[in-house]
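Lecture notes, unit on binding sites. The following record was shown on slide 14. It pairs a sequence with zinc ion.
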Amino acid sequence: MAAALVVDLEAEHSMDVILVGSSELSSPPSPRSRRDLVAYEVQVNQRDIEDMCICCGSFQVHTQHPLFEGGMCAPCKDKFLECLFLYDDDGYQSYCSICCAGETLLICENPDCTRCYCFECVDTLVGPGTSGRVHAMSNWVCFLCLPFPRSGLLQRRRKWRGWLKAFYDREAKSPLEMYKTVPVWKREPVRVLSLFGDIKKELTSLGFLESGSGPGRLRHLDDVTDVVRRDVEEWGPFDLTYGSTPPLGHTCDHPPGWYLFQFHRVLQYARPRRGSQQPFFWMFVDNLVLTEEDRAVATRFLEMDPVTIQHVRGRTTQNAVHVWSNIPAVRSRHSALVSQEELALLAQDRQRAKPPAQEPAALVKNCFLPLREYFKYFSTELTSSLQMSHYTVKTATKKDFS
Ligand SMILES: [Zn+2]
Ligand SMILES: [Zn+2]
Ligand SMILES: [Zn+2]
């Protein structure tokens, strides 16, 4: 892998630098790893932390870390971009908020925060032994939630949300601009327009909609033939517009392409005015009923390529969907590529009405987790299970990004 090679070369290069720099000084002890080098260089050699990658210790700084003071090398920047909005099924982020890696992660117990930190980052940047002390604490809040901005060498950036947006807009290859994440005290419940397929159950289980009676903040429409702009503006405003081709077993009055055209039409009514800074998200899901030509049209209309998300049991793909969405990290979530032949077989199974193992909405459910950075969420079994039991650590799920 190219990235690993770069890191190795840099490691050799930076070792040379320490040997020269550390010869006259006796304390603190010479750094044992490249990560320890960060503290050593800053404390002993008075190096500016912005001139070192705080994720790995490299001197080849490409940019600045968006959340904490310090630099970031190009390979760490790529990893950070890829993992920025990745969440696990437990509702917490999948990786360390500093280095975007880490196997054992400390989780923040602020109920409104979903961030994690690896032992190595905490021990090298805050101070040796810190991870053990945090692990023993029953209620720990993280470096972005603490009232004071500095812990050891770890200094939270002022206005880090603005830094994060600027970082993403500058570094990501995505043509989509990122919406600035919203601080907890400003987050409102999400207002949803759900066309054809309904995602009420999924959004409720994630805590975005309050369970119980009442119409809530989701409007579901099965048929939009007579819906005009004035209707949508009256029902809105909306923060999320979801649409899908009809669920299986649903009597279709229209050809599959019709659902795409109608979704696109209604999406234009639901969108905020051009240039608005209000976060607005959308998702269109095809459960393999669109033809290849329809998919090409969808890609032109929605101005992005679809991502295939699949449910795999053992070695067989049980179900798959094509997803077009501007929700962050939908692209990072897609797992190994599915062959066109496999998808064609699945689509054939559909026609024989073999029921899929998982409904399309269930397949895309976790794609909504990044919305936690933008909207209020209510407590659910998912969000409270880790916090109630006072776990302060979790093990990162290994993901393959090759
Ligand atoms: Zn790095
Ligand atoms: Zn880390
Ligand atoms: Zn936190």
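Take-home: Residues 108, 110, 113, 115, 141-142, 144-145 surround zinc ion (ligand 3) (CB under 6 Å).
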